[in-house]
Fold this protein.
Amino acid sequence: MSRARQLFHENCEGGINDQINMEFSAMFAYEAMAAYFDRDDVALPNISGFFKESAQEEKEHAEKLIEYQNKRGGRVAFKAIAAPEKQEFASALEAFETALQLEKDVNASLLKLHAVADAHNDYQMADFLEGEYLKEQVEASKQLAGYVAQLKLVGDGLGVYHFEKTFK
């Protein structure tokens, strides 16, 4: 038993382990998107780079949760990570719609974890989630929703090429 553990309910510990898995799964999905757009028959390197950065961000989220779990005296329990459901995309629009849904799913999982912290009066954990994750999730969803809207406006073909060239 950890000497650091104090008022840290096992449901909070389990929820953090589930969220670590969720973050690594999101990282894996973004890596698949990055690889897809880097292929020679797709050749959209700026979009690939965006998804590569997104994968790195999700990895950092998982690492923060691992560090937090250890600080609280919990035990990290890694779980198998399934291959991403989608690894091929009919269009850039489909990929960004998939990414937007992924961010919404991660956000829903974080909100569920926050509810677990609230249910067990773990104010420190609730504060950690609010400070490190929740605001960022809303911002990421807004950003991706904007990219989806832009891709719908420009259409396929030359529109995607232009989007790619001006994409940062």
Summary: The helical segments are 10-38, 45-71, 92-119, 123-154, 158-166. The first helix runs from residue 10 to 38. DSSP finds five helices and no strands in the chain. The CA atoms of residues 86 and 98 lie 8 Å apart.
